[in-house]
C-alpha cells in the first residue's frame, strides 16, 4: 500500500473514533439521565475507551505525517 493511501485510511479511522466517542458520550448521558447512575456505574467506561482509541489514532496519524515529510 502506498503512503498516501495509508494516510487516508488513518484519517478515516481517526474520524470514525471521534464520531464513536461523541455518540457514546451522548448515549451514555441519555441512559444515565433516564435510568440513573446507580444501575449504570460502569457505563462511562465505554466513552472513555472510545476517546482513548481516538487519541491513539490521532497520535499515530501525526507521527505518520511527520515521518512522511522527512
Structure write-up:
The chain is mainly α and 70 residues long. Helix content is 81%, strand content 0%. The protein has helices at residues 3-35, 45-68. α1 packs antiparallel against α2 (45-68). It starts with a helix and ends with a helix.
Q: Main sheet, how many strands, which sense, barrel?
A: none
- C-alpha end-to-end distance: 19 Å
Mean pLDDT: 93
| Order of H and E elements | HH
What share of residues is helical?
over 70%
Overall spatial form:
elongated
Quaternary structure type: single chain
Poorly predicted runs: none
Q: Would you report the number of β strands?
A: 0
Radius of gyration: 16 Å
Q: How many helices?
A: 2
- Secondary structure class reads mainly alpha
Q: How much strand content do the residues show?
A: under 5%
Question: Can you tag this structure with a few keywords?
Answer:
2 helices
Strand and helix layout:
Layout (H helix, E strand, L loop, with lengths): L2 H33 L9 H24 L2
Provide a quick synopsis of the model:
With 70 residues, the chain is mainly α. The chain is built from 2 helices and no strands.
Amino acid at each position: 500500500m502506498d503512503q498516501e493511501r495509508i494516510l487516508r485510511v488513518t484519517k478515516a479511522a481517526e474520524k470514525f473514533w471521534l464520531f464513536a466517542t461523541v455518540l457514546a458520550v451522548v448515549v451514555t448521558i441519555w441512559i444515565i439521565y433516564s435510568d440513573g447512575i446507580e444501575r449504570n456505574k460502569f457505563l462511562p467506561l465505554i466513552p472513555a475507551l472510545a476517546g482513548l482509541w481516538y487519541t491513539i489514532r490521532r497520535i499515530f496519524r501525526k507521527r505518520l505525517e511527520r515521518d512522511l515529510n522527512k
